[in-house]
Each structure stands twice: as structure tokens, then as C-alpha cells.
Queue: 2 jobs
Job 1
Amino acid sequence: MVGTCTALHLQQRGFDVTLVDRGSPGQETSLGNAGLIQREAVEPYPFPREPGFLLDVALGRGAQVHWHARGVWQMGKALLGYLHHSHPMRHAVATAAYSRLIAYANSEHDLFIAAAGAQDLVAREGFRFVFRTPEAFDKAAQRAEDLATRFGVRSQAENSAQLAQAEPALHRPLAGAVHWLDTWSVNAPGALVQRYADLFVARGGRLLKGDAASLQAQGAGWSVQTTQGPVHAQQAVLALGPWSDGFIRTLGYRFPLFLKRGYHQHYTPPAPVRQPMLDAERGYVLAPMQRGLRLTTGAEFAPIDAPATPVQLAKAEALARELIDLGQPLPESPWLGARPCVADMLPVMGPAPRHPGLWFNFGHAHQGFTMGPVAGRLLAEMVYGEPTCVDPTPYSPGRFG
Ligand SMILES: Cc1cc2nc3c(=O)[nH]c(=O)nc-3n(C[C@H](O)[C@H](O)[C@H](O)COP(=O)(O)OP(=O)(O)OC[C@H]3O[C@@H](n4cnc5c(N)ncnc54)[C@H](O)[C@@H]3O)c2cc1C
């Protein structure tokens, strides 16, 4: 999503753009997510600090977090940075910068959705956080009011009866829901990226297969090998999502990056779920998709190439069955992807500090699908040298020295 949107925005500014991917656009992380364009996600996801929660995580209880010892060891320094930046005072600073990007999520997607003719993939009916206990519901309803005041995020609190009426697939009463009204949902996230890539090609862009590992400085510019031969350019943008860290290390950069892996599986519920929902006290999402009802899991701290361990999926499935009849899982292996995260919870967008003509656009963590178009716009504005839609300073790659 991020690379394709960056290509589109550069193209709109008159650059001659080649989009290079080792596969096809929209076939990796941007395919397997929950498909939400999250106008409500104005606060980045902090490291949970409640002692009970952390004990559950350490002991492998609950469905929200799972970890591999190798992952925690490899990413330990970045995770400590994440804990540090999650302190309420520093989290408030991150929120100020994060919310400025999220504010553009819908309007920037809307332009591409319209131009790409992708309305059929997008529902604009919101997203529910559902709550099992009245205490959690009350707290969330208060937080929603606070976000409305501070960031203009619209929502509606629904009591138990209103929720049951809105979502008849729920087969037991819940305490209530916060219905985020401006969040959009995409029923085939990979297909949306493909439509954006088709738009790029229809407007004259070149889409080639090639490996970023072959990227090299050449003269005053950059070159990369593709199946159609070498491509030379004055400027190159790296938008490799969760693979970015592996590549920038070869250039000598050590940024505090880490991954939160996540899984999905599709089901065939007899009663359709109308709108996506987060089981907020248990930490998984149910999202209606073209393929079926998609269940997505929370965070797994593990290396990108470690074998799949879908224990959270099994736990989340059992929890989801407490609320709705999921029906049978589709006969497919669970999908596995990784959220590309940064210790200070802000994406990395801007010029590579020690490589003229090279630009970074990655680290959009839990909201890369949401932020793709605005991330592309901001990066293209910087490359072009025009006034930017938001101040790019908080996302600068230079902040890591
Ligand atoms: C379970 C789960 C649920 C999520 N739900 C949501 C959600 O509802 N809403 C939301 O906004 N975000 C969500 N996210 C986060 C979101 O999916 C990511 O932030 C986003 O997809 C990242 O996009 P990207 O373009 O940076 O990375 P990717 O989509 O992974 O794209 C990276 C691209 O780089 C290419 N590439 C990698 N290495 C090379 C190489 N060496 N050479 C050439 N090409 C290469 C890949 O082929 C790929 O096309 C979720 C993530 C997960 C895991």
C-alpha cells in the first residue's frame, strides 16, 4: 500500500516513476490485514503497561500477545524503546504527530478509490469496539467522547440492546459497543492495492519485478535490477514494509524497528456479520470480506522468517465462538504477516540521512493500510520540494542519528 501510493503521488507531480516489487503490489502485509481505513486510530498503539496484562503475556496466557524467545532477543532493544516511548507523556507527543496523518486517511483514500473505480471494495459504515463488561464499556465510551473533542473522531455509544439489534449475528448479550462512524472497511485489501497499482499503470507508470537487494548508488542516482533489465533513476524510495530493516542494515542504518506479526483465517458464519468488530477486551478483529469472515490476531513478537505458530489464532477462534457462530474455517493455511513497527510509534518518512537521492517510507505499524495514501503524498511532496500537508519533522529518518 505504501509503495504503490508513493508511486501514484510522485507520478501526479510529473515524475517518471517505475514501481519495482519482487512480487505484485498488495500481496504481502497489505493483503492480509483487517482491511480497515481507521479514522478512529488517532492514538498509536502503546506498549501495554498494566502489570496483570504483562504477567499474562509473560506466561503465555490470553490471545492478545505471543512471543518467540528469539524474537524478543533480536528486537529487545527496540522493544525497550517502545516501552519507554509508551509512557503517557511521550505517548501524547507521538499521538499529536500520528493523529495529523490519520486525519488525512479518508480524504486521501477517497481520491484514489474514486480514480481507481474501487467503490465496490469499500463500505463506509464504521467499525465497532464491542465490550463484554460494563466497566470496560463505560471507560471506552468516555475515551470516545474525549477523542471526539480533541480530534473530531465521530462515534456512537451503543448499549446492549442497540448492539444486539445492529449486529444480530451476536448470539449472547454484551455490555455495549463504541461504533466508530468514520472508519471504512475494505472487503479485499489486496485488491484495493492492485486497483491503485492498475491506476498507476493506466496513467503511464511502469510496474516491474525486481529485488531491492540489487539497489545500488550509481553516479548521482540509483540503479536496481529488474526482470526487464536495470532501471536507473535520480531518486529511489524504499517502501519495503516489514522487510525494510533487513535492507537498510545493509546500508549501515540501525533504526529501532521491530515487528508485530499477525495471522488471519476466514470462516463461513451462517448469520452474516454486518460490520467489522474488535472484541476489545480480548484483542482480535472480525471483518467481513469477499472470502468470508476474516479473523485477525494481535501481536506476535517473532522474527519475520520464524516458522508460523498460530496459537493466537486458535485462542481467538475459541473466544470469537463465545460471541457468534463462526461456522467452518475455510480450508486454507492461516495467513501470516508482520506489522512494521518503530520504537517511538511513528513511521519513518523522509530522506535517508547518509544517502543523497534515497528516501524512506516504512514503519506504519498497525495503520499502514490506513496511512498509505497520505504517507505517499507526504513523501512525494518532500521529493518534489513543495509545501507539505503536515510537518514531516516527527517522521524524519534523521531522528535516529
Ligand atoms: C493481522 C494484521 C491486521 C492489520 N490490520 C490493519 C488494518 O485494519 N488497518 C490498517 O491500516 N493496517 C492494518 N495492519 C497493518 C498494515 O497491514 C501494514 O501497516 C501495511 O500493510 C504495511 O504496508 P507496506 O506497504 O508498508 O508493506 P507491505 O504491504 O508488506 O508491502 C511491502 C512490499 O515490499 C515488497 N518487497 C519486500 N521486500 C522486497 C525486496 N527485497 N525487493 C522488492 N520488493 C520487496 C513486498 O513484495 C511488498 O509488496 C494490519 C497488519 C496485520 C499483520
Note: The mean pLDDT is 96.
Job 2
Amino acid sequence: MPIKNHFSIKINVPFVSNVIFGSNFFSSPIRLENALPSPEKGKKHKIIFFVEKRVASLFPSLSNNIKVIGRSSKKIEIIGEPIILPGGEQNKNIGSSLKICSILSKYKICRQSFVSVIGGGAFLDTACFAASIAHRGIRQIRFPTTVVSQCDSGIGVKNGVNIFGKKNYAGTFAPPYLVINDFDFIAALDRREMIAGSAEAIKVALIKDAAFFELISKKTAEIKTGNLPFYRELIRKCAKLHAEHIQNSGDPFEFGSARPLDFGHWIAHKLEAMSAGQIRHGEAVAIGIASDSFFAAEKGFITKIELEKIIKTLLDCALPVWHKLLKKKKNGRFIVLDGIEEFREHLGGKLHITIPRGIGQKIEVNEMDEKTILESFAYLSRLQNHKPKPMASATARFMTLAAGS
Ligand SMILES: NC(=O)c1ccc[n+]([C@@H]2O[C@H](COP(=O)([O-])OP(=O)(O)OC[C@H]3O[C@@H](n4cnc5c(N)ncnc54)[C@H](O)[C@@H]3O)[C@@H](O)[C@H]2O)c1
Ligand SMILES: [Zn+2]
């Protein structure tokens, strides 16, 4: 029986998010002044800066530069001193976000103000979650400082913190007003963090852009050695692919169940939680990509040669494809497999896992059998742990494994 006496409304909320790439935003006041927004002409907007502690210690002049910029700015009024707080996965929790909310309240930061966050992906998630719930949402300006965050999380519309032992369980959708990818920050990263970030680029290339994957597969030496000009190119391309997906997917706030950008992430999120943050996010994604690509090959969506090229690219970048936590069991069951159920629960009961269909395209599967997943772990363990002599390259691993040694 049709319902009478009702009405519907349709809500459209246009939102423009700008992403700027470059260097020297903090060493040159005019550069940051030019980049900053002034939505209402003639009005000085309040802006409060939160800086991740590790970044503040690596860039000791940062806080002072922010104050100098504030003194001469015609667009912004900097509120208080830049607030320095610890970041990283271990601090990505509700308590940290509430602390930031209390600071926003103390400084009377309003909805027309800006919350500016400088830090890695975990710190951005924590502080931007706080900004999105205080006053039901304060405008965000993000300065991502890691490869992962410049490639992916910084330009995304999601944020979230870990709770109940689950990654990103509490969070919101809140697009940033402005993202400034300042390449000066990534120059301070250690090699492991840089390389980990490249996994997000490999992820998006594999499901969206064959030419980009081809480029990455040829430039693995640049990734492995931390070649900054190549990382800049990688970040620009990867950030654009992520942003275009958000704009063009038709579902930026994920009302449906498809999660293409989460390719490789069901394993990644579980492994990260199991390792209590010891495995870097990008490393966990690399392992997830490797396992889900094995699955894609077994089900006929990519060829064996394509699978080998994917694994070789990951290994040549010095990314992991396997970790010993994949073997960990509880009550006789592999713990990582619970990641599938957690993903299913998150999606509302039906599984949607994106895997490659050929290189550069994708397909969604709604079931993943545990037998194939466990076979992928065995296969990847052999490739990860095989140490051929005298050549330690990934090609040598494949050649010697293929020969049965
Ligand atoms: N919201 C999203 O859409 C989204 C997308 C992808 C990833 N993420 C989240 O992002 C997090 C991973 O981000 P990450 O890889 O940046 O990790 P991270 O934030 O933990 O940073 C990694 C390490 O680098 C340090 N660091 C940060 N900037 C630095 C710099 N310039 N120089 C030297 N060290 C620096 C940090 O202190 C930390 O120890 C995860 O929590 C993941 O869930 C969120
Ligand atoms: Zn990711």
C-alpha cells in the first residue's frame, strides 16, 4: 500500500576542493599567502594550525614561519601558537580527536574559520575527524607530509580513527577546503616510509591506469632509492587519480557498496591492526595487492604473466608481499581472514572486493574463498623469503622458483 501524506527532498551540496602541489610554502611567506583561501573578500579568516610533533621536530623553524606568515597576512588571522601534538597510528584514536575538539572550543574556532593540519595520514585522520565534528564541521586545510597522505589520504573525503580494535571504525565524510602538497616535507621521510607510500600509487594504477603502472614498473629503482623528482611525479599522478575517482564515481560518500580505492585494503587494515601499527599502511597495502592479485589470476581475471609482473614490481620497489602475521592463528583459524568478515560487516552484509581485470581495469567480486586466499599466502611467502644467490633481484626469485629450486 503506497504511503500517503509524505514528501521527499533532494539535497545537492556542491563542494570545490583545491589541491596545490609545490615547495617552499613555509619558507616563503608570500607563497603560502597566495595559496591560502579568502572565501569572503576583505575578511580575515581565523586559522588555527595543528602540527604533528615529529614534523615539528624535523622542521624546527616551521612554527616560527607560521607566526611570521600570520603577522603579515591580509587574508588570515592566526589563532594562538601552532599546536604541536603526537601523531602516528598509535595516537589515531577518539581521545586524541576529542583533545583537538577541546582546543577548538577553547580558541572559539567557528564554522567560518579554518583548521589547518600538518602531518602524516594518521594525524590528518585524527585532526580532520575532530574538525569535522566540532560545530558539525569546520573548514579544513590539509598539509599532508608523507607519501601516503600526499598521494591518497590527504586529498580524500574520509577521515576516521581506530576504536574497538578496528581501523577507522569511527569517522566522517568531510572534504577538505584546500590541500597543499608541499614536497619539502617528503624529503625528510626515511626510505621505508617513502617506499611504503608508493603502494597506493601501484594500487590505483593497477585498477585505473595501465600506462601509469607501466611507468612505475620501469621506475622501480627510483622508488627503491627514494628519487625525489620521481616521487613528485608519482604523487601528482596518484593524487589526481584518487581525486578524479572521488569526483567521477558518482558515489563520493560511499552510499553504495563499491570501494575501488580499497583494492588490497581488506588484508591491509587487518594486518595493520594485528601488528599494532608496526607494519606501515603502505606496506600492508602492498601485501593486500599481492594477495588479491593472486586471487584475480586464479579466477582468470589477470594472466599469470600479469600477476608475476605485479609481484615483481612490488618486490623491485622493496615493498613486502608477505608478512609472518599472515600465519598467525587463533582457535585454529587464521586471524587475518577475519578481515573479510569485518569488511563484509562494514559494507552491510554483501562483500564487494575490487580486484584487477587485466592491468589498468577492475572488477568487483562478491565472494572470496579462503582456500585461494591461503594459497596466495603460501605462494607469496615463497617469493618473499626466497634469497637467490648471487643475484637478489625479484626476477631471479621467479626464475629460480620456476625452476623448482
Ligand atoms: N582517510 C583516508 O582516506 C585514508 C586513506 C589512506 C590512508 N589513510 C590512513 O593514513 C594512515 C597512514 O598514513 P601515513 O602512511 O602517512 O602514516 P603516519 O601518519 O603514521 O606517518 C608515518 C610516520 O611518518 C612520520 N612522519 C610524518 N611526516 C613526516 C615527515 N615529513 N618526515 C618524516 N617523518 C614523518 C609520522 O610521525 C609517522 O611516524 C593510516 O592510518 C591510514 O588508515 C587514510
Ligand atoms: Zn590506503
Note: The pocket of zinc ion (ligand 2) is lined by residues 152, 200, 265, 281, 285 (CB under 6 Å).
